[in-house]
Amino acid sequence: MKQKRNTNHSIHKKKGTKRKRILTVNIILSLILILTICFLATRLSPNEQEAAVSGTDIFELADIPEYTGSPYIEINNNLPSFSDKDLVKEAFEHYSNLDDLGRCGAAFANVGPETMPEEERGPIGEVHPSGWQVANYHDLIEGNYLYNRCHLIAFSLTGENANEKNLITGTRYLNTEGMQPFELEVLEYVRTTGNHVLYRVTPVFKGDNLVASGVEMEALSVEDKGAGICFHIYAYNVQPGVIIDYRTGDNKPDPNYDGQEQVEERYEPAEEKTVQEAIPENSTEGTSEADNQGVTYILNTNTHKFHYPSCDSVVDIKEKNKVVSMESRDKIMEEGYQPCGRCKP
Ligand SMILES: [Zn+2]
Q: Which of 87, 84, 76 is nearest to 296 (CA)?
């Protein structure tokens, strides 16, 4: 029956039916593809995504490459993910409640002269962060101990000392090589300028691990809109020479560790390079998302051009000429800036 009816149709009509059928097949295939992608996305790393979201919306642990010798890497093109409403001149401090595994979340502050401690640091030994263990590696680690009670926001910045919401189980290496260079940079800036710095540190846990894989650190100077301080990095919670079980904090010496080689690798970047230079150029960042996260454009105060944060030219702008803007395009043009010819913002 069907066949017979078909033969009666005109050629024109047949073509139409065929086209319709191809269209239908295409739609079905697209739907299957979309559903597969959604399924895979939720399947692959639900825990990583959950953990990462606590600090910002755009950071995912899955995007972070394995540790290969640098204590930290730049993420999101080194641009923090604060929003416009965060840019206030009053100091504040917020520490997340511990989750049901006893783990810290993001610590967020607007650091200024008024948040800095006047008293000496007291003892913190009574705090036992998630995954805490005492592990002595006196032959390998300066200071002997693998784990430090690691302040998310340094004591020197907000004076929060034995606050359990501000202390994680961090390696000596994370503490001194990963985080300290950035803490010192902010400390020095606030001391010399009296300005404020938005400062957020988010520990990143994979799944139900008790020890963080690393910390995400973001900072932006407020009064000068990032001219003084602007960074967004991920520091690895690793210790060269030690294998760590992040689920529990258990640890053992790495039998394959060649100490000499690693030590050189780990000290050079922190000592000789400034924060900006130390950032690898081919880092893994999701750049375009930065546009709706507060930072709108990057200004070059020398050439008076402005760029999208994701523009390749941004890395070439000298630090002293680079200003992070949260203004609208019109406002920036009113101030005498021209759009870059390359990224055409
Ligand atoms: Zn550009």
A: 84
Neighbours of ion ligand 1 (CB under 5 A): 307, 311, 313, 340, 342-343
Distance 245 CA to ligand 1 centre (A): 43
- Which two tokens mark 279? 């950032």
Q: Please state the rounded mean pLDDT for residues 174-190.
A: 95
CA 97, distance to chain mean position in Å, is 20
pTM of the entire structure? 0.63
User: Rounded to the nearest whole angstrom, what is the distance from the C-alpha of residue 224 to the centroid of ligand 1?
Assistant: 21
Q: What is the pLDDT of residues 18-63, one digit of tens each?
A: 555 656 656 556 655 554 444 444 333 333 333 333 344 456 778 8
pLDDT at 221 exceeding the cut of 80:
yes
Whole-angstrom distance, CA of residue 75 vs CA of residue 63: 9
Helix 46-53 vs helix 11-44: crossing angle, to nearest 10: 70
- CA 297 to ligand 1 center in whole angstroms: 9
